[in-house]
């Protein structure tokens, strides 16, 4: 029997404050019959990106960044640990080493299985690039019925598939053309100038997509909360469930240096946080994906830390 007083297993010798619980301690692996407040699953796919991307490393980076947060909410005076909040972690989906189509199929099949466990009332998919959303929405439709989407993004992601196949620029076009999503059930928020081709904006309008630019975000009567409430009112009577699709490049490049497609003129993290917290108040909002973080480009995990904070905010509601 070891008598070492100051030696711990590798990776376990971190400082521990007896009064502090780290947010990562809320995570527990899924086992049959286990229930939690939210569930997370990683979809570490970045091969379909039209630009260089290490987004496949993001699920691990976001989980690691949970260690940067405690469980105490000073504004609410509440502690997630004392409230026994639990994050069920299903782990990561194994991607095919070469086939994008097979990887997308694995995401669809895996998320369908996760949804069917009914392990939690809210599920978060950690991407990965935005191409994963085609597969996740198909799985959501399979298990929860008609889907509406509120998309936070600088880009329409409605590119044609003839020029590059199923890339991270095509997920919503693939959903619309595949009959999995009606254009009028897609609401885009944060679309930016000089980030999209006119043809794809025209396609969005032709398909009945609601498009809110960054100018709209800044000038909307009642602010971002009012915009989200109006979006929810627009969707709630038409769909069975509502998915939030959060492309982190909706944020300004000053706050999200870890996005492959960073640019100026984007959203402040507080605006995105308020938008998501407002959406989470609606009972039909049951799924969210967080995509387009490349930890190899990030600075001190700035972008992944925002994603981890958004994950934690889902536990507060």
Topology:
Layout: E1 27-29, E2 38-43, H1 58-65, E3 72-73, E4 78-79, E5 87-92, H2 100-117, E6 123-127, H3 132-144, E7 147-152, H4 171-177, E8 186-191, H5 198-206, E9 210-213, H6 214-219, H7 223-236, E10 241-247, H8 269-279, E11 285-291, H9 302-316
Parallel strand pairs: 1-5, 2-5, 2-6, 6-11, 7-8, 7-10, 8-9, 10-11
Antiparallel strand pairs: 3-4
Provide an overview of this structure.
The chain has a single domain, classed as Arginase, Chain A (3-Layer(aba) Sandwich). Helix 4 links the parallel strand 7 and strand 8. The model has no long low-confidence stretch (mean pLDDT 95). The chain is α/β, with parallel strands linked by helices. Helix 3 crosses helix 4. The protein has 9 helices and 11 strands. The strands form 2 sheets. The chain has a 9-stranded parallel sheet, sandwiched between helices. A two-stranded antiparallel sheet has the order 3-4. It is globular, with a radius of gyration of 19 Å. It starts with 26 loop residues before the first strand and ends with a helix. Helix content is 32%, strand content 17%.
Give me a quick take on this structure.
By secondary structure, the chain is of the alpha/beta class. It has a single domain (23-316), classed as Ureohydrolase domain (Arginase, Chain A, 3-Layer(aba) Sandwich), CATH 3.40.800.
Number of separate strands: 11
> Which structural class best describes the helix and strand composition?
alpha/beta
Give the CATH level 1 class: Alpha Beta
So, the CATH homologous superfamily?
Ureohydrolase domain
> Could you tell me how far the N terminus lies from the C terminus, measured between alpha carbons in angstroms?
47 Å
Main sheet summary: 9 strands, parallel
H-E order: EEHEEEHEHEHEHEHHEHEH
Number of helices: 9
What is the spatial order of strands in the main beta sheet?
A: 1-5-2-6-11-10-7-8-9
Give the uncertain stretches in residue-range form. Answer: none
Q: Give the integer mean of the pLDDT values.
A: 95
> What is the general shape?
globular
**Residues in helix, %:** 25-40%
- The number of domains: 1
CATH topology: Arginase, Chain A
What CATH architecture do you see? 3-Layer(aba) Sandwich
Range of strand content:
15-25%
């Amino acid at each position: 029997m070891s008598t070492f007083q100051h030696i711990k297993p590798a990776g376990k010798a971190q400082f521990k404050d007896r009064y502090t619980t780290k947010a990562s301690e809320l995570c527990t692996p899924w086992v049959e019959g286990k229930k939690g407040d939210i569930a997370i699953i990683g979809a570490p796919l970045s091969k379909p990106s039209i630009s260089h991307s290490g987004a496949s490393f993001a699920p691990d980076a976001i989980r690691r960044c949970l260690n940067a947060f405690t469980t105490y909410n000073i504004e609410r005076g509440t502690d997630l640990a004392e409230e026994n909040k639990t994050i069920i972690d299903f782990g990561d989906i194994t991607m095919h080493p070469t086939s994008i189509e097979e990887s997308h199929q694995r995401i669809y099949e895996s998320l369908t299985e996760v949804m069917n466990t009914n392990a939690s009332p809210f599920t978060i998919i950690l991407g990965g690039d935005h191409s994963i959303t085609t597969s996740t929405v198909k799985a959501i439709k399979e298990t929860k019925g008609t889907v509406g989407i509120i998309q936070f993004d600088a880009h329409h992601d409605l590119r044609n598939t003839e020029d590059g196949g199923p890339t991270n620029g095509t997920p919503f076009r693939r959903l619309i053309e595949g009959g999995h999503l009606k254009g009028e059930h897609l609401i885009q928020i944060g679309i930016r100038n000089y980030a999209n081709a006119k043809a794809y904006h025209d396609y969005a309008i032709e398909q009945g997509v609601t498009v809110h630019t960054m100018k709209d975000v800044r000038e909307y009567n009642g602010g971002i909360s009012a915009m989200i409430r109006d979006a929810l009112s627009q969707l709630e009577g038409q769909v069975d469930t509502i998915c939030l699709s959060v492309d982190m490049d909706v944020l300004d490049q000053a706050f999200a240096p870890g996005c492959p497609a960073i640019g100026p003129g984007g959203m402040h993290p507080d605006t995105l946080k308020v938008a998501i917290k407002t959406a989470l108040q609606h009972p039909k909002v049951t799924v969210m994906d967080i995509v387009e973080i490349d930890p190899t480009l990030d600075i001190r995990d700035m972008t992944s830390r925002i994603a981890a904070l958004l994950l934690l905010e889902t536990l507060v509601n």
